[in-house]
Amino acid sequence: MCIEDTDGPSAVKDADRWIMDDLDWLGLDWYGPVVYQSQRNDLYVRALKLLEMQHLGDGQPLVYPCFCSRADIRAASAPNAGDGFMVYPGTCRGLSGKVVREWLNRGKRHSMRIAVPDNPDVPGDVCRFEDSVFGLRSFSLPREVGDVVIKRSDGLVSYQPAVTVDDLAMGVNQIVR
Predict the structure, then answer these.
(1) How far, in Å, CA of 108 to CA of 100, rounded?
(2) pLDDT means over runs of 10, the chain (177 residues)
(3) d(CA 43, CA 150)
(4) pTM of the prediction?
């Protein structure tokens, strides 16, 4: 079992015990020791460093700094924000290296995003998989997901890469979230 407690400011004291007590009450058990994400940050940082060394087919970096605030993103997608989920419009993905270096040197606050393919001819634009409950599922990554934050502007590794590293390390092959 993995306790997702990387977001220290939002963590609730003793929530881990409540979760384990509830699972025990339901008669559910887990394999191996309880793992706390807050104690595995070095693994997540190593995974991000590996991603930062990768490039897309056009030579662009797979991971890039994003200087947009949530307000900036809301403003860029205001007409389409009806469902509460906004796909990042890619504002910082196309910044020149000169601008990025200048802003980083000035210490401008930023997150790190992973670029998803944005070309139907490139493998990976559409993600397809067989869901055990809902059957064949298909998502257009650029239109339905967008470039995901993998490291927050406060320096914390975000949820998605942390749980991916944990699931791989623990051999998880079925997930219900």
Answers:
(1) 10
(2) 81 88 91 88 94 85 90 65 67 90 94 83 74 89 87 90 91 77
(3) 14
(4) 0.80
